[in-house]
Design brief:
By secondary structure, the chain is of the alpha+beta class. It is 66% helix and 10% strand. β1 (140-143) and β2 form a beta hairpin. The chain is rod-shaped and about 120 Å long.
Length: 242
């Protein structure tokens, strides 16, 4: 005996909401962790970079400690050193700006990569759910006069034979019936099912799926139940035939 909570939609709803909230929290914590790690790395890097004025301070110290250097050549050498220190500080300042830009860019790339990864995982999980549960069909309109079928917002032009096969399956779905290939062939051909071949009905199903074109749509819309037959994975109240 199965528990009612295992199939109760009202009980499944809160569980799905809780899982979604938990996933959002994990995503938020992941993004915050990436930003925090990069921020810590940036702080450590900038703290360990040499001071832009360190070279100028050394040159100034040379001036102070060697006041005996009064010759023209010595003074010119000290001026060159001072100019070199200024150039070094400007280059180091530009390096700091470049490092900041690179860290910002890497943070944006990592955050975007994580978001894309989560989105891809979510899409894969969604596709797995669709494959397990079938297509979520809001409406299925079969137009025999135009040889067309409208599935949600997708329109398919079919052959007359494919429309007949789909109509038979739709009528069976309205009656909660699962039809074998022989039964499908019998309804379409007007013969007794005992006189029809199972393979003939299976061929009609294959042609219907080929006419629908989209493999995911065709395989999930027309389901094959082992040892029972074929059935449309469509709610009865969503089917209309004109």
């Amino acid at each position: 005996m199965t528990s009612s909570s295992a199939t109760d939609p009202a009980a499944a709803g809160p569980r799905a909401t809780e899982v979604l909230r938990r996933g959002n929290r994990v995503l938020a914590f992941g993004l915050a962790a990436i930003v925090a790690i990069l921020l810590a790395a940036a702080v450590l890097l900038f703290l360990n970079l040499p001071d832009a004025n360190a070279f100028n301070a050394r040159v100034e110290r040379i001036f102070i400690e060697n006041d005996a250097l009064t010759g023209a050549n010595e003074i010119r050498l000290l001026e060159i050193l001072a100019q070199s220190g200024t150039a070094f500080s400007e280059v180091l300042t530009s390096y700091r700006a470049i490092i900041f830009v690179l860290l910002t860019f890497s943070a944006a790339l990592l955050v975007a990569s994580l978001v894309f990864l989560v989105v891809i995982l979510g899409q894969n999980r969604r596709m797995s759910d669709i494959q397990r549960q079938g297509i979520e069909v809001a409406s299925l309109l079969i137009s025999r006069g135009e040889n067309a079928v409208v599935l949600n917002d997708m329109t398919f032009k079919l052959t007359a034979a494919a429309i007949e096969t789909l109509s038979v399956l739709a009528e069976a779905r309205l009656d909660d019936e699962v039809m074998t290939g022989a039964q499908i062939e019998a309804v379409i051909s007007g013969r007794d099912s005992a006189d029809c071949d199972e393979a003939a009905g299976a061929t009609r199903i294959k042609r219907l799926r080929d006419a629908l074109g989209n493999q995911l749509v065709s395989e999930l819309l027309v389901r094959n139940i082992a040892r029972k037959g074929y059935v449309l994975s469509v709610p009865k109240n969503a089917i209309r035939m004109i």
